[in-house]
Amino acid sequence: MSTNVTILIASIQNASTQLNRYFSIFVFIFGVLGNMLNCLVLSQQKLRTNSCAFLFLISSIFSLISILSGLTTRMLAGYAVDLTNTIDWLCKLRAFVLFASRTIASWLLTFASIDRWFSSSINHEYRKRSSLKNSYRNMYIVVSLSILLYVQIFYCYQANLINTPLKCYGKTTGCRMTTDLSYAIITIIIPIMGMILFGIKTISNVKHSYRRVFIEAVTASNVTRNTATHQQQRWKRTDYQLLMMLLIQIVLYSFFTLPQAIQKIYSTFTEEQVKPALQNAVETLVFNLLLLLTYFSSGISFYINTLCGGQIFRRTFFDIVKKLWRC
C-alpha cells in the first residue's frame, strides 16, 4: 500500500472520529431540545385531544428516547469511552431501546397519515375512524409489535466485535441480516411508503372536499352556503395545518432516513466480500454520516411544526413561553 493511500485512509478515519465527536453533539442538542419543546406544546389540552396531534406527541416522546439511547453513545465513541462497545448487557439494552423506539416513532407518523386521510374523507364512516380512541389503540399495537420485532437483539447483539461497522453489533451473519433488513424494511421503507401513500390520498380527499363544498354552496341557499363555508374554514384552520406539518415531516424524514436504509441493505449483502482498506474506511465514514442524519430526522419535528404548523402550534408555543416568563 502506497504512502499516499495510507495517509488518505488515516484522514478518512480521522474524519469519522471528528464526525462522531462534534457533529453528534450538535445533533444531540438540536434533537433533545426540539423533542422536549414538541412534547411540551403537543401535551397542551387543545392539541392533545386531537387524534393526529396525539400521535405526533407520542412519536416525539419515542424520538427523544431514540436520541438519548443512540446519540449518547455515539458522542462517547468519539472519545473512545463508549461502554456499549465493551459491556455486553449494555450493548444489547441500548440496541433494543434504540431500534424499538425508532420503529415506534416512524410507525406512529404513518398512523398519523392514515388519521389525516380518515379525517379528510367525505365518507362519514371513515371520518368517525379519526378518533382519539383509535389513536390510543394504534399506539398500543405499534409499541407491542415493535418490542416483539426487536426482542431478538438480546440474543443477536454482542459487544467487543471486530470487522463490523460497530463493536456492538450482530454477532453472526444471520443475526446481522435479520436485524439490518428488519430495520431497513420495517422501520424505514414500509412506514415511508405508507406515509407517502396516505399523504397523497389525503391531498386528493381535500381537493375533492373543497370541490364538493363549492358546488353545494353554489346550489344551496345562503344559510346552507354560509354553513358549508364555515365548515371548510374550520377544517382549514385545524386539520389543514396538521396536514401541512405531517406532509413536510414525511418529506424530510424520507430524505434523512432512506439513504441509511439503502446503506443497510448494501452492507448486508456485501459483508462477506473482501474489501480493500480504503473502501472500508470510506464505507465507515458514510455509515457514520448517514447514521447521524437519521438522528437529525428524529429531532426536526418541532422546527417543522413551528415554521409550518400555522397559528395553532405557534400560538400554543408562545402561550407556554409567556406563562414560563411570568413565573
How does this structure look, described?
This protein is mostly helical. The chain is built from twelve helices and two strands. It has a two-stranded antiparallel sheet. α1 runs antiparallel to α3 (51-77).
Defining key terms:
327 residues; 2 strands; mainly alpha; 12 helices; two-stranded antiparallel sheet
Write the layout of secondary structure elements.
Elements: H1 3-42, H2 45-48, H3 51-77, H4 88-120, H5 124-128, H6 132-150, H7 153-156, E1 157-158, E2 169-170, H8 173-219, H9 222-270, H10 277-298, H11 301-308, H12 310-326
Antiparallel strand pairs: 1-2
Oligomeric state of this protein: single chain
Number of helices: 12
Shape: globular
Classify the helix fraction into a percent range: over 70%
Overall mean pLDDT score? Answer: 83
Straight-line distance between termini: 65 Å
Rg measurement, Å: 23 Å
Q: In a nutshell, what does this entry contain?
A:
The chain is mainly alpha-helical and 327 residues long. It has helices at 3-42, 45-48, 51-77, 88-120, 124-128, 132-150, 153-156, 173-219, 222-270, 277-298, 301-308, 310-326, and strands spanning 157-158, 169-170.
